[in-house]
Structure formats: C-alpha cells, structure tokens
Specification:
Blueprint (H helix, E strand, L loop, with lengths): L10 E4 L3 H12 L5 E4 L12 E4 L1 H9 L3 H6 L2 E2 L2 E6 L4 E6 L1 H6 L4 E4 H10 L6 E3 L3 E7 L2 E6 L4 E4 L1 E4 L8 H4 L5 E15 L6 E6 L4 E7 L2 E9 H7 L1 H10 L6 H12 L4 E10 L3 E2 L2 E3 L14 H17 L6 H30 L4 H11 L4 H4 L1 H7 L3
Parallel strand pairs: 1-2, 1-12, 2-8, 5-14, 12-19
Antiparallel strand pairs: 3-7, 4-7, 5-6, 9-10, 10-11, 13-16, 13-17, 14-15, 15-16, 18-19
Bound molecules: flavin-adenine dinucleotide (FAD).
C-alpha cells in the first residue's frame, strides 16, 4: 500500500547538464529530493562551453523556475538569422521577430550562464560531482545502483540525462536499441570578445560551414567541414583556406577567424546525433540528448531537452512511487514523437548545409532564396505550436 510518506520516489538523476538540472530544479519545487550525479569534478564543472540559441520552447521553462530575470539579464534577444555564401555575400535574411512576438523571446546565451542560472534556481547541495554510474539493476520496483567508486544505493527511479555520448544509456539499452547518425562533419568553437549584434550569421560553403553566434557581450564562432578534409589539411590551414575566400569587406568574419586561429584549446564538435528506440526500461528513463541527441543545424537540442525535462517533471509530480510506469508511459507519449520530428528537421537541414560539391552548393544557394524559415524547420514549427 502506498503511504503518504513514501509516495515521492527516491530519484537519481545522472548528468547535471541542461536537461538534468532543469528536471532536478522542477522536481525540487514539487517536494522531491533527487540526487544528481555529474561526471565532472566540481573544479572542472561548467568552466568551458559554447553558445546556445534558446527558443521560447525551452526558455519559457525558466519562467516556471522563477529564473526569468536572471535569464534575461544574461542573454540577448535575437532579431535576425542570415544565411551567406562562403565568400560572405548574403543569400537570405530571416526576420525572427515573429517568434519573439507570437511565442516568447528567442534568446542567445552561453551554456555556462544557462547552467549557472539553473544551479541558482535549485538546492545545488543535492549535486555530487565527479561521480558516474557503473551498474544499474532493476529489482522488483526499485533500481539498485552501483557507482564507479563502488558505493551502492537503491532508488525508485533513475533519470539518465548524461548527454549525447551517454555511457549510462549503455547500461540500460541493448546495442540495437539506439543508433548514432553521423554526418562525418565536425569543427571548432571559439569566442570573440566584442559587443554583438542580434543577428545569427551562417556561411554555407562547399565543404565548409561557419557560424557567428552572438551571446551577451561575446560572440561564439564556429568553423567546420568534412572531418576527412579537416584531418588532411589541419585546423590552421583550414582557417586560412576559409579566409582566402573572403573579401576585405567582411571584417567581422576576419576577426572571427582570428579568434579561432588564436584559440588555445577550442571546443571540438562532432556533427552526429543519436536516437534511442526505447526511452524507458523498468524504472530507468532517458531524458534530453541521452534519449534523442541533436545535430547543431536547427539549434533546438537544448530547447527540446528543457521541454522534455518539464514534461517528465510534470508527469512525475502527478504520480506516486507505485505508479511510476504509468507516469513514464505518459512522458514518452508526450515527448518522443515531437522530439524525433524536431530531430528529423535538424537532419534535413544538415543535408542542405553539409554539402561538399560546389555545383550542389550553388544549386542549394539558389533554392534557399525561395524557402521560408517555417518551411526549413516545418516540424519544429509544429512542435512550437504544440502539435
Ligand atoms: C557547440 C554546441 C552548440 C550547440 N548549440 C545549440 C543551440 O544553439 N541551441 C540548442 O538548442 N542546442 C544547441 N546545442 C545542443 C545542446 O547543447 C544539447 O542538446 C543540450 O545541452 C542537451 O542537454 P542534455 O542535458 O541532454 O546534455 P548536456 O547538456 O550535454 O549535459 C550532459 C551532462 O552529463 C554529464 N555527463 C556525461 N557523462 C556522464 C556520466 N557518465 N555520468 C554523469 N554525468 C555525465 C556531462 O558532463 C554534462 O554535464 C549545441 C551543442 C553544442 C555541442
């Protein structure tokens, strides 16, 4: 029989990233006491990172956490998205204001600032740093957890939120229950210290891709291409090739390339994603990138992770320990299909962006002039509308 005392499940969250912290903070508000374990030691946690565009889909969850003021103080509202040729010339400019007007503020923030805001919204003493899970064993309606340091603990629910390269997922799913989708492209992120404009700029080339993504008081710069080519010629030569295609009339781009060239240890990003066919095994549930990871192309992974965290916390808050399987079933029903559709948009965009041949790139550039933003990301538009 469920007693009043035990109806909140003993919960473990693996991974203190965007999804894990959002879920933890929301659950704390509902009277849960989740334990959160994070692989990074506290000294290395949240010390580096990249830039995030947050659609209202994700950003509005921060309202729920009472963190709107901090979020607005540490981010900027985006007005325009521009796609350019690799030589700098503009192909198409998209006004983002319809998002800001219809759905909520579309904002840009550094991942480090977002993580800090999430930590400030919760009781962070529940976080254990430098901890990973070694084994998970379902036993009746509980999960016996063995941590990498040999300690063992029992939980009613384990939320796996350790990101795209989740190792915890491997303890739960069989190899044929998740699959990576690899574009064989990758690249580096660096920071340019200057006051930004509220424009996302991308440069879609043949065998190269560059992005200039402002956040508050800084600009995140990305440069990438086919991994084979990058490996063949090396990072600095790749930057110089990119520079040679540019005219002098694009000083922001030259400064961006300088920032990449000078970066001592730029973040390397492999362009692949992952999709798990099962999100739930017994009392273990996948969340965020661990369930469905995203390519960077549509800039929607963090928003979806926060949206899913809110849906999971909502279903759990209405449930009790004895009926977790029902709550998890409802969470999957709410999220899996819409997450996978948004993921499909990101893949489809990737096919347009990651083109090697200059003939195909020219055809793509021509066709792009006739695409609306809603047509480029049709599923994401529907997801935002709640479909
Ligand atoms: C360069 C870059 C740019 C991006 N830009 C955007 C963007 O503009 N907009 C957008 O919406 N999305 C963007 N994304 C995607 C977005 O960052 C992810 O979709 C989002 O962070 C997913 O959240 P998550 O919590 O599932 O994973 P993460 O935020 O990656 O968090 C996973 C956490 O788990 C920890 N961890 C890993 N392994 C273990 C383990 N074994 N045990 C315990 N802890 C572990 C990690 O240290 C990390 O703290 C970008 C991603 C990158 C890399």
């Amino acid at each position: 029989m469920t007693t009043l005392k035990t109806y909140k499940p003993r919960t473990l969250i693996v991974g203190a990233g965007v999804a894990g912290l959002t879920c933890a903070s929301l659950l704390q508000r509902q009277g849960f006491n989740p334990v959160i374990v994070e692989r990074e030691p506290q000294t290395a946690f949240n010390t580096s990172g990249y830039m995030l565009g947050l659609l209202p889909l994700g950003g509005r969850v921060l309202n729920q956490l009472g963190a709107r003021e901090a979020y607005f103080a540490h981010s900027i509202e985006m007005q325009t998205y521009e796609v350019h040729r690799e030589d700098g010339r503009l192909i198409k400019s998209y006004d983002l204001d319809f998002i800001n007007q219809e759905y909520g503020s579309y904002r840009s923030i550094s991942r480090a600032d977002l993580i800090t805001i999430l930590l400030d919204s919760m009781d962070a003493s529940a976080l254990r740093y430098g901890v990973t899970v070694q084994a998970l064993q379902q036993q009746d309606n509980e999960v016996w957890v063995t941590f990498a340091d040999g300690r063992k603990e029992t939980f009613d629910l384990v939320i796996v939120a350790d990101g795209l390269h989740s190792t915890t997922r491997k303890l739960v799913l069989a190899e044929d229950e998740y699959a990576y989708y690899d574009t064989h492209w990758g690249g580096w992120v660096a920071w340019l210290d200057e006051e930004p404009e509220t424009i996302y700029r991308e440069y879609w080339g043949a065998s190269s891709f560059m992005g200039v993504y402002p956040v508050k008081e800084q600009i995140g710069v990305f440069l990438g291409g086919p991994e084979k080519r990058i490996q063949e010629i090396g990072f600095q030569a790749f930057i110089e090739q990119e520079r040679q295609q540019l005219g002098d009339e694009y000083p922001l781009l030259h400064r961006s390339l300088d920032a990449l060239a000078k970066a001592s240890d730029p973040f390397y990003w492999e362009f692949h994603d992952v999709r798990a066919s099962q999100w739930v095994k017994g009392n273990v549930v996948l969340l965020g990138d661990a369930a469905s990871g995203f390519l960077p192309t549509a800039g929607v992974g963090a928003s979806m992770a926060m949206d899913s965290a809110a849906a999971l916390a909502d279903e759990l808050s209405r449930s009790d320990t004895a009926h977790l399987d029902y709550a998890l079933k409802l969470y999957v029903r709410r999220q899996k299909d819409r997450v996978e559709k948004a993921q499909q948009d990101s893949r489809d965009l990737g096919k347009m962006m990651f083109i090697k041949s200059s003939v195909a790139a020219a055809a793509r550039n021509y066709a792009l002039r006739f695409y609306t933003l809603k047509a480029l990301v049709k599923n994401i538009s529907r997801t935002i509308e709640g479909a």
